[in-house]
Design a protein that fits this description.
about 140 residues, alpha+beta
Length: about 140
Amino acid sequence: MLNNLIGSYEITNKLGEGTYGLVFDGFHRVLGRRTALKILKHTGNEEEMERRIDLFIREARIVAQLKHHNIVEIYDVFFSEIGPCIAMEYIHGENLRTCMNLFETSNSQNIEIFGQILEGLEVLHNNGIIHRDLKPETF
């Protein structure tokens, strides 16, 4: 597992996991800012890992240039002893799966929610980013 410090970031708990990375609740000690810290998962194959690192960094660079209310802001990209990391905006709240289970929403509310998701995905796709791990826990 992780120690509680990666670079300038204190790590408290795991927020989620996708195909390519793990996301942790982080806190930047110098700036005093809560973040989400995405850490690229390792593979056994060195060639595959190099490809994944290139993709990870490329996507971080593109997303860092985007300013949109449905896309998290990228604060930092750095390499740590455990691999490449992306520090990004932390969004407080429940993911879509939890909201679907906790709250009974109307069709108009569902359309509003999915419209926001699609709006953010459209901006990503128009900028060459394909989200490879869509699931209710992502949103």
